[in-house]
Specification:
Length: 388
């Protein structure tokens, strides 16, 4: 929905010197949108004709006080709240928080649990990227087909998550020192079947989209994010890699057991909407490679550290920062333990959606108002972690 903020700023044409036409800028408000789109979010846009000359993201409609709530509850009590940060990717949210607490407490995670974490994280990446592409095509006007194809594959992954955690989206699956429930043979078989069949879906998806002349015309050279600006603005994830920034926390930190897997980091060279689309396709193919290796080599053993007692869980005094490569970029938790160690003294989230949204104006300046919608779609935000 696009509406005028003030009637006094409506678009007018007035005669200029020597018969030329002078124009006035028009200030419009795009949004706030319904939660079934990208979330409750607004953009104040100033237009010269149809060209964007200024853009201000307006957020805060969904603020839920996540960080302050966490400072008033036990360490484990915050785990289900992390599900609500990026409600598409609760498994990776859980992992980032669990990793931060484990670093602070010096907890060693069993190998089988590390492999299970990798498996659910890469399955999460598959369903996130497929859905993000479907939503982007929805923003382009391709109603129905791409998004339904993506959701068809997403449902298979959510069925597996429900089988192992009891919930399709708010999984609350990770625990300090491992995972809540082990993968049995049936669950492993289901994960292998999804992994085996996913490349065929990607081939069909690419046949439909990658060389599509409408997608090429609408997305190439639109919303370019220069490499230097991406670095200077702390942009991470597919957004940064589409601009040629070779940075992936899985490679940099090798957290969990990622150091054991052979996979590459796809990079774009233009940094436009099309590169941000295609980098997600390539990342899904790399996730399939990781899944194949993890499922083939998953060891036997405990799924959670036996010495970790979840009741009366205490953390020694100190502070620490743990981070992972979430589907949208670097997701980190900065935690401070003080006093009796029963709850965080300080709890702060580094959310990729919020950071990646800060350069929205830079990508939109000089573009047409119709392009603003797909540029926002290519960022892949979720307001749960923007307005945490």
């Amino acid at each position: 929905m696009i509406q005028s903020l003030t009637e006094e700023k409506s678009y007018t044409l007035t005669p200029g010197p020597e018969g030329t036409i002078e124009t006035q800028t028009l200030e419009v408000s795009i949004g706030p949108q319904h939660p079934s789109t990208h979330g409750v979010f607004r953009m104040d846009v100033v237009l010269d004709g149809e060209t964007v000359v200024k853009l201000k993201p307006v957020m805060g409609y969904l603020h839920r006080n996540h960080e302050q709530l966490a400072e008033k509850m036990a360490w484990l009590g915050s785990m289900p709240y992390t599900d609500r940060l990026d409600y598409f990717n609760s498994m990776t949210n859980n992992w980032a928080y669990a990793l931060s607490v484990e670093k602070l407490a010096g907890i060693k995670v069993p190998e089988r649990a590390e492999y299970i974490r990798v498996i659910v994280a890469e399955l999460t990446r598959l369903q996130n990227h497929a859905s993000a592409i479907g939503f982007l095509l929805q923003d382009l006007g391709a109603w129905g087909t791409p998004l339904l194809y993506a959701f068809r594959e997403r449902e298979k992954i959510l069925d597996l998550f429900e089988a192992v955690s009891g919930s399709r989206m708010m999984c609350n699956y990770m625990r300090f020192g491992g995972v809540r429930v082990d993968f049995d043979d049936k669950t492993l078989a289901a994960a292998r079947e999804i992994t085996t069949r996913f490349p065929k879906f990607l081939d069909e998806f690419e046949k439909l989209l990658t060389e599509n002349e409408v997608l090429l015309a609408r997305c190439q050279k639109i919303g370019i994010l220069p490499r230097e600006l991406a670095i200077n603005s702390s942009i991470t994830g597919p957004m940064a890699r589409a601009s040629g920034v070779e940075y992936d926390v899985r490679k940099v930190d090798k957290y969990g057991v990622y150091g054991r897997f052979d996979f590459r980091i796809p990079l774009g060279d233009v940094g436009d909407v099309y590169d941000r689309y295609y980098i997600r396709v390539l990342e899904m193919r790399e996730s399939v490679k990781i899944l194949e290796q993890a499922l083939h080599n998953i060891p036997q053993g405990p799924h959670i550290a036996p010495e970790v007692k979840l009741r009366n869980f205490k953390i020694p005094n100190g502070d620490g920062y743990g981070r992972i490569e979430a589907p949208k970029g670097e997701l980190g938790f900065y935690l401070v333990s003080a006093g009796d160690g029963k709850q965080p003294h300080r709890y702060h989230v580094r959310p990729p959606s919020f950071i990646n949204l800060t350069i929205l104006e830079d990508m939109c300046l000089g573009q047409k108002v119709a392009d603003v919608i797909i540029i926002l779609g290519s960022v892949d935000i979720v307001l749960g972690e923007v307005d945490r």
